[in-house]
Amino acid sequence: MARRSQMPMKVNHEVDELLALREGLRIANYYNFGVDSIEVASFLVASSLNDPSVPSRFSKLIVLDIEALMVDVDICKVQAIPRSSCG
Questions:
Q1: Where are the domains of the chain?
Q2: What is the rounded CA–CA span in Å between residue 44 and residue 20?
Q3: Please, which of 35, 68, 81, 87 could form a disulfide with 73 given CB 3.0 to 4.6 Å?
Q4: For 33-55, how does the pLDDT look when each residue is reduced to its tens digit (9 = 90+)?
């Protein structure tokens, strides 16, 4: 597991969200859990994962991991839900 002190990038809430998403997809894939959809709070995260032509300011390695895991669990789209509507 990666720790902040080992990360070669600036960590913010969007990177935290990517790392949490990657870990959740790893668990779902390992245990063969069904995943119906992926919802994130950041529009930047969603656009980085939905459209490869959008330049990502995030670690390409993390994004590539998530994209591969999305294929493994048969998810093709990430939806952004604003934090204000999350309760």
A1: 10-85
A2: 15
A3: 35
A4: 989 999 999 998 999 899 877 76
